Amino acid sequence: MRYYSIEIEGQPPFTSLLNGVTNPNALQVEFDIPVAPFASPASTGTFVKIWGIPLSTVSQANNLRFKNIKVFGGFQKGLPLAKPAQAGLLVSGYIFQAFGNWIGVDQSLDLIILPGMAPSNTAQPTTPPNLVLNWPQGQPMSTAIQSALSAAFPGTTSKINISPNLILQAQEAAYFNSIDEFARYVKATSKSIIKTTTYPGVDIVLKGMTFTVYDNTPAAPSTTPAASTAGKIASASPQKSVLFQELIGQPTWIEAPSIQFKTMMRADLTVGDVVTLPKTIVSNSAQAQSSIINQQVAFQGGFRIQSIRHVGNFRQPTADAWVTVFDAAPLQIQAL
Predict the structure, then answer these.
(1) Residue 52 CA to chain centroid, in angstroms?
(2) Could you tell me if 261 and 242 are in contact, meaning their C-beta atoms sit under 8 angstroms apart?
(3) For 240-330, CATH number?
């Protein structure tokens, strides 16, 4: 059965699961949750709408601003193909704006969520973090990024897997007003060091309290537990498989060389993960001509997830009303 849980700091949770059993009287919720690297324009805020709330919540909606919030989603037991293990945290952040609405007999709460922890001073919510980069000559970029993130965002974990060749020939120091600005700098600088046309650069994405920093470098064997403490570097996730019965509709090419596929809502995959799709379920068309080495085989090999979008309408009965949409690029790309 479809599952959600919305936890707001200082408030009772909104959830569809009570004592391990699906609640048929759960409130209607809608959400659109994009998950993308900070350097991407797609890394904008999350939208969540909750229907059927009491009038007291509508009238005091502004009090929810800058409260920390977590949204969980996926499926729980009840349907044959449901996989509770794939349910989990979809987004963690803070409420930037909250709107209560009352039209006719409908009362609702709209929330705009931004990633990260809520500002400590709500009177000055735009105060920049202490995000300083100190990158000595000859030091790998991974070490410099880890130091900057752990100092600016204490309590977070850094999962970093990037090329060891990202080294500067001179010391560099810089200050950044936001994580978005820092991510754009990291991506541009990495591409200026490794100038091959197929190198995508370094991206940074946040899920929960974990920063994932990645490029197309193959994952190294794990030496650090995933639940490491603040500032520790954990290895990248292993390759995962997407099964045929998990897909909603057909995977398709959206551009050379990126693909898009849709699955039942799941939280176990994140940006930067490498996945494989079921073999020989799609034939390439003339519009899909690209530089893929394995062009003659339908969606074979590994694809790295570039962005994710969780879309949910809890009481809409159609299959595509509770899904996760993935954009991914192949690991093997040949320059034209």
Answers:
(1) 28
(2) yes
(3) 2.40.30
Which residue, chain included where needed, has tokens 């197309």? 216
Q: Where in the chain are the domains?
A: 2-115, 131-234, 240-330
* Centroid of chain to Cα 79: 26
The string of pLDDT tens digits covering residues 134-149 is 999 999 999 999 999 9
DSSP states of 20-53: TEE-TTPPPEEEEEEE--TTSTT---EEEEEES-
Q: What is the pLDDT of residues 86-110, one digit of tens each?
A: 999 999 989 999 999 999 999 999 9
Say how far apart CA 29 and CA 109 lie, in whole Å. 10
Closest among 88, 93, 171, 181 to 129, alpha carbons compared? 181
Region of residue 272 (phi > 0: left; psi between -120 and 50: alpha; otherwise: beta): left
Strands 233-234 and 157-161: parallel
Q: Which whole-number Å values give the CA distances from 22 to 69, 228, 266, 310, in the listed order?
A: 22, 33, 17, 21
Half-sphere CA count of 246, side-chain side, radius 13 A: 22
Distance separating alpha carbons of residues 185 and 212, to the nearest angstrom: 16
Do the bridges between strand 240-241 and strand 274-276 make them parallel or antiparallel, or are there none, so unpaired?
parallel
Tell me the CA distances in angstroms from 138 to 141, 142, 277, one per residue in order: 9, 12, 39
User: Using DSSP, how many helices (H) and how many strands (E) does the chain show?
Assistant: 3, 21
